[in-house]
Specification:
single chain; alpha/beta; Rossmann fold; 12-stranded mixed sheet
Length: 665
C-alpha cells in the first residue's frame, strides 16, 4: 500500500478539511445521496448547519496523512437537502413525549429529569445530502468530478462544514479545462490580457443568517464569477419584482464595462429599459448609468427630451424604414382590401442605379410624390425640406396650366405646399390627356398615379380615403432624426457605447415595434458581417420583462427567439430578466448558460426551473425567502448552483474605479 505524496499535505485538497468544523459521519451513501449522522454539540461548534449548505466528507485523517493510502485521497462534496430519520428516532420521540407529560408548568422543572445517557442520545440526528461531486488532485491541480466514481459502504467518511478559505475554494471553483477554455474564448472575442474574476456577492444559505453570516466568528465568503462567461452567452435573471433583478443587471453592465476598459476591447451594451430605471437617476440608486459613464452612454426616448436622442424614425429621410412601418400598420389593421391600397403597399422606393437615367428620374419623381403624400397626411416635415426632380418643358407647361398658383421648376426645388399643388395639377392634366415622356411612355406611370390619386383622394372621379389611411403611422414619425435610428444604434454599439432605450414613456405598441426593429437590425448586421468572413462586434443585449418578447408560443424564426438562440455565434450576448419562467420560450431556457434566481412566488415557476441543473434543491427556499438580492447562481464556469447574497450596486465605487483607471493611463 503506497503512502500519500507529501506534497498533498499543502495542496488545495487539504484546505477543504477543517477538523475544528467536524459535524458527524456518513452512515449511508450511494451515487446520488449521502445520509449523515450529526450531533447538536458538533453543529453548535460549526455555527449550525443551514439548509442547502455545503459539507465535505473524507475517509482520511488530515492529521495523519502518512498512514493514508493514495486511493483514499479524495473529498466528497455534499449539499444539505433536509433531515433524515435515524433508526432510534421513534423511541426518542416517545421518550420526549413522556418527558413533556411530567411537566407541571410550561417553564417549570419536571418531576423526573432526563438522565445523561438519554439526553446524549437525543442530541443525535440525521441529515439527507445530495452528492455534488468529488474533489481530487491530479498533476498538482485541484479537480472536481461531478459524481462519485465509486463508494465503499463500510468506509467511514468524516463530515465537515467548510468555512472561510475552504468555503471560498468550493464556491469559486473552476476546473483547469474550463479556466483555459474561458481564456481562449476571451481572446477570440478580442479581450486581451488576463481579466480577473469579479465579485458579485457573498455566500448566503438561508434567509435567517444570524449564525452563518452575522456571528462574530463567521466570515462572509465572497463569490466571484468569470467575465468570459457572459460574453457571447445567454444569461437569465429571474425573480419577482423588487427582489434585486435590476441591481443584478447594473452589476453586469458595470462588469462588462470594466472588462472592456481593462482589455481595451470594444463591447457595446444595449439596455431595453422598460421602467426607466437605468436611464434616469433615482434616490434609491444614487445615480443612473448615464451619470456614471457620461462619455460612454447614449440614451434614447420615444418623446423629445433634453439629454435623450429621438427613438422614432424620420419618414422623410429614412424612406424605406418609414414605408416599412406604414406597410405593417396597414397590414395589421386589415386595410389592404382595395386595389389602390394594394398598389400602394407594393411600391418600391429603392433607388436604382444612377447610370440608368430614365429609371432614376422616374424614382426621383416617385419619391417627391411620396414625400408630398406624407406632408398631406400630416407628417411634420423637417425644417426647410424641399423636393427636386426633373420634368420636361412640355410637362411643366401642362401642369402650370392646371395650377392655381405660379410654380417654380421642380429641378430647382419645390416646397411641400408647392409640391402638393404641382402633383394635383399634374393629375388633372393627365386625366384630360395622358402625358408622355420623350420616349413615348406614359409620364405618369402606375406607381405615380397611385400616389397622386391618394394625395387628391380621388380615383378617377370616385372618392377614396387616400392619404387618410396613413394616419395610424403618424405616431412613429419624428422630424428631428437625420439617420435611421437602428443603424445609428448599431454604429454606437460597434464603438463600445452603452445604449439605453428608455421605453417607460410613449405608446406601448410603438415601443414594442421599435424595440423589435432595433433587435432585428442588430442581429441582421452582425450576421452579415459574420457571413462575409469578418468579425462581428461584441454586443450585450439586456431586456426586461422578457416573457413579453420571447414568449413560449413564438416561432423560432421570429426576431427575438432567433437572436436569443443564434446570436451567440455572432458575438451577441443576451441577458434577459423576467418573473414568469414558465412563459419563456423553452428553447431559450434550454440554451441559457448563466442563471441568477431570486424569489419566485409560486410552485409552477419553481417546477419549471427545477428542470435545469440542481435548482430543484432550492425549490422551497425560492418560494419562502423574499430577501432582496438573495439569489441562487449558476454560471457557465461553475459546476453547481451557489446561494449568494448579491452585492448592492455602488455608483460611487464605480466612479472611483473609473477615476483611478484614468489616473493610471
Amino acid at each position: 500500500m503506497q503512502n500519500v505524496n507529501p506534497i498533498l499535505a499543502t495542496s488545495p485538497l487539504m484546505k477543504l478539511i477543517q477538523p475544528e468544523n467536524f459535524i458527524g459521519w456518513v452512515y449511508a451513501i450511494d451515487y446520488e445521496f449521502a445520509h449523515v449522522m450529526t450531533n447538536d454539540l458538533w453543529k453548535y461548534r460549526a455555527l449550525g448547519i443551514p439548509h442547502n449548505c455545503f459539507l465535505v466528507a473524507a475517509s482520511f485523517d488530515p492529521q495523519n496523512l502518512a498512514q493514508t493510502p493514495e486511493e483514499e485521497m479524495e473529498i466528497v462534496l455534499l449539499r444539505v437537502l433536509g433531515s433524515a430519520k435515524l433508526p432510534q428516532d421513534d423511541d426518542l420521540v416517545r421518550t420526549k413525549i413522556d418527558h413533556f407529560k411530567d411537566q407541571k408548568s410550561p417553564t417549570g422543572t419536571p418531576d423526573r429529569e432526563l438522565d445523561d445517557l438519554t439526553r446524549s442520545e437525543m442530541q443525535f440526528g440525521g441529515l439527507k445530502c445530495r452528492v455534488l461531486g468529488t474533489f481530487f488532485m491530479d498533476e498538482n491541480e485541484l479537480w472536481l468530478g461531478s459524481d462519485l466514481e465509486s463508494f465503499a459502504t463500510a468506509t467511514r467518511l468524516n463530515v465537515y462544514r467548510p468555512h472561510g478559505e475552504a468555503l471560498s475554494l468550493i464556491a469559486n471553483y473552476v476546473d483547469p479545462i474550463r479556466r483555459n477554455t474561458a481564456r481562449e474564448m476571451a481572446e477570440q472575442l478580442g479581450v486581451k490580457g488576463e481579466i480577473n474574476p469579479f465579485q458579485i456577492g457573498t455566500v448566503r444559505y438561508t434567509s435567517t443568517d444570524r449564525l452563518h453570516r452575522r456571528n462574530a466568528r463567521a466570515e462572509k465568503v465572497p463569490v466571484f464569477v468569470q467575465p468570459a462567461d457572459f460574453l457571447a452567452r445567454r444569461t437569465a435573471v429571474l425573480g419577482m419584482t423588487r427582489t434585486g433583478k435590476s441591481n443584478m443587471i447594473k452589476q453586469l453592465v458595470s462588469v462588462v464595462k470594466r472588462v472592456a476598459d481593462e482589455s481595451h476591447a470594444r463591447i457595446g451594451q444595449i439596455i431595453y429599459d422598460i421602467n426607466g430605471e437605468y436611464a434616469n437617476a433615482n434616490q434609491q440608486d444614487k445615480g443612473a448609468l448615464a451619470d456614471i459613464y457620461p462619455q460612454d452612454t447614449v440614451r434614447y426616448r420615444m418623446l423629445e427630451t433634453p439629454g435623450f436622442r429621438e427613438l422614432r424614425t424620420n419618414f422623410y429621410e429614412q424612406l424605406n424604414e418609414g414605408f416599412g412601418i406604414i406597410q405593417r400598420e396597414l397590414e395589421e389593421a386589415n386595410r389592404i382590401t382595395t386595389d389602390y391600397v394594394r398598389a400602394f403597399v407594393n411600391l418600391s422606393l429603392d433607388e436604382p442605379d444612377s447610370q440608368e437615367q430614365s429609371e432614376h428620374k422616374r424614382w426621383q419623381v416617385r419619391v417627391a410624390a411620396y414625400r408630398t403624400l406624407l406632408y398631406v397626411a400630416g407628417f411634420q416635415p423637417p425644417p426647410g425640406l424641399s423636393v427636386k426632380f426633373e420634368a420636361s418643358a412640355e410637362i411643366r407647361q401642362s401642369v402650370q396650366e392646371k395650377s392655381r398658383i405660379p410654380l417654380p421648376e421642380p429641378r430647382l426645388g419645390l416646397s411641400l405646399p408647392q409640391a402638393k399643388e404641382w402633383f394635383l395639377a399634374l393629375r388633372q392634366a393627365n386625366l384630360e390627356k395622358p402625358l408622355k415622356s420623350s420616349s413615348g411612355k406614359d409620364w405618369v406611370d402606375d406607381s405615380l398615379k397611385t400616389l397622386i390619386d391618394m394625395i387628391a383622394q380621388r380615383q378617377g372621379s370616385a372618392y377614396i380615403s387616400g392619404f387618410k389611411i396613413l394616419a395610424d403611422s403618424l405616431k412613429y414619425h419624428s422630424p428631428h432624426r437625420t439617420s435611421e435610428v437602428a443603424d445609428e444604434i448599431y454604429e454606437l454599439l460597434k464603438d463600445g457605447k452603452i445604449v439605453i432605450l428608455d421605453l417607460s414613456v410613449g405608446d406601448a405598441r410603438i415601443r414594442e415595434k421599435v424595440s423589435t426593429r432595433i433587435a432585428q437590425k442588430i442581429f441582421q448586421k452582425s450576421m452579415e458581417i459574420f457571413v462575409r468572413g469578418e468579425t462581428p462586434p461584441n454586443i450585450v443585449v439586456y431586456i426586461e420583462e422578457a416573457h413579453n418578447l420571447i414568449g413560449k408560443g413564438m416561432d423560432l424564426t421570429e426576431t427575438w427567439p432567433r437572436l436569443a438562440k443564434e446570436g451567440a455565434k455572432y458575438r451577441i450576448s443576451l441577458v434577459y430578466a423576467t418573473q414568469e419562467v414558465s412563459s419563456m420560450h423553452p428553447n431559450i431556457l434550454a440554451n441559457t448558460e448563466n442563471w441568477f434566481i431570486t424569489h419566485l412566488n409560486n410552485a409552477r415557476e419553481v417546477k419549471e426551473l427545477a428542470q435545469f441543473y440542481d435548482f430543484e434543491d432550492f425549490g422551497d427556499s425560492l418560494i419562502r425567502a423574499q430577501d432582496v438580492g438573495f439569489a441562487r447562481v449558476k454560471t457557465l464556469s461553475s459546476p453547481f448552483v451557489i446561494p449568494v447574497q448579491i452585492d448592492k450596486f455602488d455608483p460611487e465605487q464605480e466612479r472611483r474605479r473609473i477615476t483611478e483607471r484614468k489616473g493610471q493611463e
